[in-house]
Amino acid sequence: MVPMTNTKSDIHLIIEGAGCASCVGKIEGALKATLGVVSAEMNFADRTVIVSGTAKTEELIKAVESVGYNAKPIDDSSETDVLDEKEAADWAYYKKLMRDTFIALSLGIPLMIYSIVIGEMTVETNAERMSWFMVGVLTFGVMYFSGKHFYVGAWKSFKNHSANMDTLIALGTGTAWIYSMVVVFVPDAIPMMARHVYFEATAMIIGLINLGLALELKARGKTSEAIKRLIGLQAKTATVIRDKKEVQIGIEQVLLKDVVKVKPGEKMPVDGVVIEGHTSIDESMLTGEPMPVEKTEGDEVVAGTLNKSGVIFFKATRVGKDTALAQIINMVKRAQNSKPPIGRLADVISGYFVPVVMIISVLSALAWLNFGPAPAIAFAIVSATTVLIIACPCALGLATPMSVMVGVGKAAEAGVLIRNGEALQTASKITAMIFDKTGTITEGAPKVTDIVLAHSKDDKKVLQLAASLESGSEHPLAQAIVESALERDIELLKIDSFKAITGFGVEANCENRVLLFGNEKLMKIKGVDVTGHIEQAQTLAKEAKTPMYFAIDGHLAALIAVADPIKPDSISAIKRLQANNIRVIMLTGDNKETATAVATKVGITEFLAEVLPEDKANKVEELQRSGEIVGMTGDGINDAPALALADVGFAIGTGTDVAIESADITLMRGSLHGLADAIAVSKATLRNIKQNLFGAFIYNVAGVPLAAGVMYPFFGILLSPVIAGAAMALSSLTVVSNANRLRLFKAQEH
Amino acid sequence: MIVINIIGLVLIAIIVWWFWLYKPQETVVENNEIMIEVKDGIYSPALIQVAADRPILLTFFRNDQNPCSETLLFPSLEISEQLKLNEITQVNIKALIPGEYEFHCQMKMYHGVLKVI
């Protein structure tokens, strides 16, 4: 949806059931009588009303209902309803097309059989004239009942100085019918040999093209399955607490700051922050992350995710079109309708296609009339008609959008949000991928990895004392130790005389003991003997861990190592990228030892340590200059310049916090497999588009000359208009079906 | 035969003139609000002239079952809308600088131009 640009707090409503101009006064009056309404203006032409003021949408709807009409807010109509209406409309259209097909083929098939079995459909005697006249009238009936939409569409486009598929079908079938009727009425105007009628072609073409459209409609429905699934994630109703009572309302009526209750098995209706309760939530439908996430007071919940265990109450923070899910749906829809550059040529061709085919048709008729064998007029009519019928602008026009629709949807299912067609195309060509280390390859949150006991025997006690001491420090490594203790439900003790010794560590007293925590230098200064553990500390450092010494009363109690752990699947995801011949480069602001250790562990040979944010952008530029198509992955604000400069910027979301507009491709889960998936789905989509475009081009480039009769002088082959009609119907169906093959795409993960 | 050839060439000339060279009159929109009907394979009106530097409200009414008519694209404005059948869909466009802004369906068979002056 395009954001409304009204500056006032206007509410747009559509009024249903307003059939007369006098309704306007009634509806406006009812709205103006509502508390908080400043003005209400109804536009009778489009049955909409704009209401200014502070009144709520539901109050306005009630006011309209009180005078006997129905009202719907324009911008807040539920996506699910829209989807249901669309499916119903498509189904009705499918039935109409099938009925049209049946009518047309009921006449076309017997006529075809007659022409094959009995022989030539010629007009020689008066009796034949009479019977063919009757067939002509029946064919006109088919044209009227089954093909009216082609003729009306063609005429309206013509008046509009444009031409489309209807133009070609109307001209082709119309020419065949008019020529046949001329043969019936004034046979003498046509040479004896050319007195054929082509009623079967008219009826068959109308039937086959309607059948093609019906099948295409069915196939099209499948291309939007992904978006349907996303829309289907939305809950229809919500339980909110109003006036201390639980009330069930439609999700479009949930307001900001409403307290929403969600029971196990229910979906979150809107986004919010938990204010009461504890539960685990399945976010896999949005992030692709299979493990449920624990949520308690203060945690964010996202619309569309599933409550697995407990009852929670949360305060709505984003409703309607602002929820993360609504934004994702909006983004996917927009991306599905955008075209990658590869489709632009087809777009340009589509603009000229129909008039060019019409010119070719005239030229082909002239060529037959000038140089063709007798009966030249019959050959001219057949070739002109066949050229018009076989040409298929639809296959060309559908080639790109159908594949993009399926590809972008497929990516969204895997938790990969592709911003537009251009990002999709560029992602398929990436040759080098730059990673930020912290938060991208690693978790981004340091954790205690090793506690090597020395003097002490009780690791729980050691952790309790160390964490109590570190609770006074704000250093990220200290935080890791405190969190580690809290995770193990270890209670922190009170400390006093806390002192931070900058660059070395911290010291404090606790339970009448002197605690000391820091590096080797600090231990030396304070006279703590660490000689037996230096080698072990070095080994830990080589594993990308930061070892620190903890002493109690002047004796080394333990060696505690803290590290930012590598995400469990970073190694396999990086291997996947390398297997696709993508050069993987790691950049980090960290020191060389840590960078080396992490890079070695994940299998990256090319890396730079102690890099400043601007150096990351420089590296992107350097790679681009050397001819690489560069993808950049990052999660922090400091990566922004490099992300913007890269050919494709990937943002790693944490699942709920979706920075949709910030990057070309957003990965909804932390796993780097999302990257490999994004590239794989982009490649598959581009391959599919190329197949479609190639097929559509070749079809038209080969079909049109064949229909014009270029093979006739050499092999005596001239295509029948009926075959052309079948080929045309099949060509766009083939494109849509090929795009549908993408639905089978599976990310080769894990 | 000469007459037939001349007729054929005239036909080609008419096609070229009618579809490519002829510049139809735009529908001038006074208050930058207009209703566009989507019916029988076309947008009506399809050529719309609006004033620059003022927001534009386009109200599309889709009365065309053809699935092609469902998607409305303004590629240069990065707008894409799904037009609901037998319903209106409003497209609010921010004030634009003078120029021609195309809008069309996915396959460019339905085609229109917003001319901003």
Automatic annotation (TrEMBL), chain B:
Gene3D superfamilies: Cupredoxins - blue copper proteins (2.60.40.420). Residues 12-114 form the EfeO-type cupredoxin-like domain. The chain crosses the membrane at residues 6-22. It comes from the Bacteria. Keywords: Membrane, Transmembrane, Transmembrane helix. This is Cupredoxin domain-containing protein.
